[in-house]
């Protein structure tokens, strides 16, 4: 069951599997897992990788996780940067 972004990353096989699929460093995805967040601009590919591993992750699930984490994220500089970037690029409407 998907209750956290960590669960989403695990559903993709592992941080290394997801990092490879996204063309990112493993440490980047490990940091997402540690922070329990996934940047919105990667959601579509993350859903695709999870599906390839037999797990359905929906945009609605990701939005609920993001909403649940929003108060925590907004208290951090990282969260504030992600929100500004998401709004500036319109990425928050793509999911």
Give me a quick take on this structure:
This protein has helices spanning 5-11, 15-22, 26-35, 43-52, 59-74, 77-89.
Structural class: mainly alpha
Q: What is the H-and-E element order?
A: HHHHHH
Quickly count the domains.
1
Low-confidence stretches: none
Structural notes for this entry:
With 95 residues, this protein is mainly α. It has one domain. It is 67% helix and 0% strand. The protein is built from six helices and no strands. It has helices at 5-11, 15-22, 26-35, 43-52, 59-74, 77-89. The radius of gyration is 12 Å and the shape is globular. It starts with a helix and ends in a 6-residue tail after the last helix.
Jot down its keywords.
95 residues, mainly alpha, globular
Question: Strands, helices and their partners?
Answer:
Blueprint: H1 5-11, H2 15-22, H3 26-35, H4 43-52, H5 59-74, H6 77-89
Helix pairs in contact: 2-3, 5-6
């Amino acid at each position: 069951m998907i209750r956290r972004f960590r669960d989403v990353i695990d559903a993709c096989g592992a941080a290394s599997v997801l990092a490879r699929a996204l063309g990112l460093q493993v440490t980047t995805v490990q940091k997402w897992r540690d922070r329990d967040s996934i940047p919105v601009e990667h959601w579509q590919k993350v859903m695709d990788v999870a599906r390839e591993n037999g797990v359905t992750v929906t945009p609605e699930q990701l939005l609920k996780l993001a909403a649940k984490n929003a108060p925590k994220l907004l208290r951090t500089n990282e969260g504030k940067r992600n929100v500004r970037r998401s709004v500036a690029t319109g990425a928050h409407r793509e999911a």
